[in-house]
Each structure stands twice: as C-alpha cells, then as structure tokens.
Amino acid sequence: MKFSMKMKKQVFTSVLAVAVVFVSSAKMIDLVTEIPVPEISGTPVPIQLTNLEPLQQTAPVMQVPEGTVNLASGKPVTSSDDWPLIGDLEYITDGDKETGEGYYVELLPELQWVQIDLEAPSTIYGIWMWHFHAQRRAYHDVIIQVSDDPTFENGVTTVYNNDFDNSAGMGTGADLPYIETNFGKLVDARGVKGQYVRLYSDGNTTNDSNHYIEVEVFGATN
Amino acid sequence: MERESNVDGFFMNRRDFLKKSSVLGAAGLTLGTGVPKAKAAGPNDQIGVAVIGTGAQGTVLLNSLKNIPGLKFHALCDIWEYNLKKGMSALRGTGTRPNIYENFEEMLEKEKDVDAVIVATPDFWHAPHTVACLQAGKHVYCEKMMSNTLDGAKSMVKAARESGKLLQIGHQRRSNPRYRFVLDKFIKETPLAGRIVNVNGQWNRSLSKSQDITIRKASLLIPKEKLQQYGFQDMRQFLNWRWFKGLSGGPISDLGAHQIDVFNWFLDAVPTSVTASGGRDYFKDREHFDNVMSIFEYDTPEGTARAFYQVLTTTSAGGGYFERFMGTEGCIKISENPSFTKIYREPEVDMEKWKPILGKGLLRQDKATAPAAAAPSAGTIDVRESAPLAAYDIPVVLNKPAHQPHLENFFEAIRGDASLNCDGEHAYRDEFAIHHVNKSAEQNERVVLKPEDYEI
C-alpha cells in the first residue's frame, strides 16, 4: 500500500540556467529542491541533547540569485575514511535522497569529513544536506567549511558549526544541533567563494558512525 | 583516496581488507580490559562472541557490544551480504575483525572459541538458532520474542536446561537502571502509587514509521532461491517479516512484548486471562493486525489488577510508548524514553510517605505542578474538574545505549558475577500471554490462562 501522506516532490526549476551570476543585480528567487519521501523505521532512540533546534516541519526556505544551480551534482567526493563498508561516497552527489538501505554511505566513528570538489572556483549561496533521515537523530559536531585549498590548510571559511563544546577542536560554533528529517538541513553560505566544500561530523545520537545521503551545493561558477 | 577500495572488495578479496585497513591487526583483537576475572570465559579472560543476524537489530546490539570491555568478536553470520557489511562497519574502529558466515551451522562448526552467541534474527529463526547454539555449548542472548510459537519458545527453555548454558532474552528494560530504580524504590520499598489496580500501556507508531521497508537498488537484492532456502518467499517478506504470520507475532509481539513484560515484572504476576480485539483496518495487505487492543487480568497478592495495552501503527497520538501503573495513591508512568517518565501523586495522599523520598532527592517535583506554580490565578475555576496531579521526575538517566546494560548483565552472568535479569524460564512466562492475544482477537473470545498452562 502506498503511503497516503507521500510528499509532493518539489523540483528545482533553474537547472538549465547559465551558471554565471551577477549578485548585485540578480533577481532573487526561492531556493527549491527535491524533498525525499519521509520514511522512518526502527525503534526510536531518545535524543539527549539540551540545545536542539526545533524539529523541522516544512522544507526550509532561502532566497538565492536567479540562475543558482547545484554545483555538487555528480562531482567527485573524497573522505577521511578511505574505505567505507556501507555505501559509496558517490552517493553523496548522485541526486538520490531517499533514505534506508542502499542510499547512504557510512563512515568510521569519531570526527570524519567528506569533501566535494566543485571542479571550479565558485560562489556558494546554500548547502543542503541529508545525513540520514530514516530515524530521528542528531549528528554531533556538524561543521562545514569552504576553501580553494583542497587540503584545507589555507583560506578556509567556516559557514556552519554546531560544535557547541569545541569537542572537534576547530572552535566553538554558534549553530544549534538539529534533528535529521527528510527536509534536510539548509545552510546559508552567504556567497562564500571556494572550490572545495568539506563537511565534518562526529557520530550521532544513535550510534558513533557518520552518514551521508546527499549534499547539494547551490551557487554559481565564478 | 584509494578509489579502487570498493566496499565489495572485502567480500571478493579479504587479503585486500587486511592490507588496506589501517586499524586492523590480528583477527579478533580485544576491545578492552579492566573487567572482573572471568569464571566461564575463554583464554585471556575474554569472552568469545558471535552474532547471528546483523540486520537492523543486530547492528543496534553491535553498537552496544563494542562498548563492553573484555569481548572478542569471532564471527558474524547473516544470509544477506549487505547486513554482514553493516555488522563489520559497526565494528570498524574497534580493532576487531570477525569472520563472516552465511550459514550458522558452519559457523558453529568452525568457531570453537565462541563462548556466547547473540541471536538477532527474525522471530521464526530464534528457536532454531538458539537451540543449536545452546546444544553446541554456547551461552545465548536472544532477542525477544523468544519465538513466534510457544513450541519454539519451549524448545529454547528445554535446550537451556539440558545444556546448562545461560539463555538471556532481550527484554532490555529489565536491565534499565531507571526501571529497576522505580521498581525497587517506588513499588517494592515504598509503594508510592498505593495499591495498583489498573495498568495501561501503549506503543502508538505513526503511519510514516509503519511503512514497508523497501530496497530499490537491484544490486542489493537477494536471489529468490536463496531467500526461499531460508524461509522467506521474497525480498519484501525478508525485509518486512514482522508483518507475516509464520515469521512473527505481529505488532503485539514485536512492540507490545517489551511493555507487557514490564506489566508482569512490576506486578510480579502473570495474566490469568486475555481479551483482545484487532484488525487489518488500514494495511489491508498485511497478514497480522495493524492495530490491537488487549486487556489482561492479573491475580496479584493485593487483589485483581486489570491492564489495558494497545499497539497502533497508524498514529503516534497519545504520546508514543509508555507503561502506566495506576494506583489508589498515585500513578507511575514509565518509558524507555525518559521524557515520558513521571510519577504522579493524588492530592489527598498523606505527604508523610513522600517526604523522606523527596528529602533524599529520589524524586524531584516537576516545577509546573509545584504548589506555587499550580496556585490559581484570577478567573473562574470549574470545580467539576479535578486539579492536575502533582508530578515528579525521576533523577536516574541511562547514559548508555538502551540495550547495553542488558548485554552487560548477560556477560556478567557468564563470568559468574550476576544473575540474568531475564532468563529464558522467566521470559517464557512473560511472553506466554502475548501468544494468546492474536488468538483472542481472531476468535473474538476471552482466553483464560491457568497456572498450569505456564508450565513447561
């Protein structure tokens, strides 16, 4: 039987736009992407964090310049875990946001990162990510950085950091931990420039592994 | 990154696995030390462990097992390669590398250093797996329900008796420190609720959490011949065995078993009758009921107690999952989710009974129901309404994964340092009535359970 509450898919309609944007004069539009069907399974595990964001109930909203596209689509992904057993790093940019078995990549415990090479210097307005949404859980120390340096040793800009206790040792972040949902997490990257996007996490409230289903990086090639 | 290090490489070439994984050393490295000296453990005071069934629940257990010192993982067994990868992945970073098997008999034949087996397979496989392991001289931790049939459950108890090995059943609330604290302090030592006349409990699961599990990637599908070899008609049945008769007991046993076990445990009794109603009212294509409402009668030393339990799979209304013990002086509401746990006091109750407990900090009054907060403000009070009961929080929090204390208890018992919190003998009695719920609902009749019915 089909799930009667199935979400109406929202499709990003500007994928054919020319990837050159003039921010100062560009028309601003709502950033929209395909929202996967909600699908929760398994026994719930209580989330014992005191500073959680309220549960996301609808798709997040953000305005971006017209012509913004998902620069991460199909782009290569590397990771601090060079050999995930479950899933493949390619899943992260394959456009498939469904949850459950076969749709996520699982990385080693402790602080791990994945890195997307946009293959060209870019201006980034939004980063939309889904770690794992088949269960209500929150990932620890979610940090997102952008750089033109693939080693992230120079010219690093942090656009999101919810490591409230600096357990990752990369500085205390002001962003709040959040509960994973099918709506994903949309981060305002405020037009940061860079070719590489690196996302960190350090386990989650259910287990100590790290997971990714999809990461979209919305922007324009410089 | 080494792009050639594909995940499937492990199964095609295990030498590569050893070569590429920087954290791995010799097979089955110890996860930790510092536990009491083993009485029944293997060499080097470690307990050799194997896991049969490394799917969703098996992985949950592995994520607890890897936190327990003194275990040595020898083997993982599952018929689905993907599940074996999940099991291996759960153990990554621990410096351990168990052998993998599809066939449990082969595993038992080859893995001579295994002391204890964790069984987390679908319910209809519990008895065959457990009995074989016990007969092979292994201690067994088996997930609940013991079996989808009473005969299966009986065979497990008999095998444990005959082998002399330990059999722990996965009713993990029995080892949850908050549950044990409430039972010891507020039911046995100072019965804060007074005489418990009624109990209710529920597990209401929303529609979005009750959907079929599906696999859409063709590369992950198991060949039909292999599925049928292991008792599944097809992939849908393999993934959703909980909905099928012959493979499970349906939601009343899948979810309800945990909570009805708590009814029995806290009341220190087993039901004398079961009356139930249920239906396939939404999921028409499921063999088991998608909602069940049941009434259990108990003969307790204090008199009759009547308990209501419902499991619903189309709504989360009513606050998820909890058990509530309603007495003449108050009410104890408890759940695996600490936020659902409260103790309520009837207003006319003599506070003398409560003062020592509050004085010791064993309970904390919920600020929202404290006298100052509850004082009426200007306006009209409808005297027909009962005032909200004073509510208290329990300052005991489980700071480990939910299943870990129960697994720890199992291994402590193997070492001779503890008794099992839920051995097969007790679990059989606790699950006995649950086997009659679907029958009562199907036949629309009350089922009377006599003391002798519980005997094996």
Characterize the structure shown:
The complex is a heterodimer of chains A (222) and B (456). Chain A is mostly beta strands. Chain A has no helices and eleven strands. Chain A has strands at 28-30, 63-65, 69-70, 77-79, 105-107, 112-130, 143-147, 157-161, 185-201, 210-212, 214-221. Chain A is globular, with a radius of gyration of 17 Å. Residues 1-22 of chain A have low confidence and may be disordered. By secondary structure, chain B is of the alpha/beta class. Chain B has two domains: 9-174, 3-Layer(aba) Sandwich (Rossmann fold), CATH 3.40.50.720; 178-373 and 382-400 and 424-454, Dihydrodipicolinate Reductase, domain 2 (2-Layer Sandwich). Chain B has helices at residues 9-12, 14-20, 56-65, 81-91, 104-110, 123-135, 150-163, 177-189, 224-229, 235-239, 251-254, 256-267, 355-359, 371-374, 404-414, 424-432, 437-443; strands at residues 47-52, 71-77, 99-101, 116-119, 139-142, 167-169, 196-204, 271-279, 291-300, 303-312, 321-327, 330-334, 342-345, 364-365, 390-393, 447-448. In chain B, helix 7 runs antiparallel to helix 16 (424-432). Residues 1-40 of chain B have low confidence and may be disordered. Classes of the chains: A mainly beta (222), B alpha/beta (456). Chain A binds chain B through residues 1, 3-5, 38-46, 48, 78-79, 82-89, 98, 100-103, 106, 108-110, 206-209, and chain B through 1-2, 5-7, 10, 20-21, 56, 59-60, 63, 82, 85-86, 88-90, 92-93, 206-209, 211-217, 219-220, 282-285, 320, 336-339, 397, 399, 401-402.
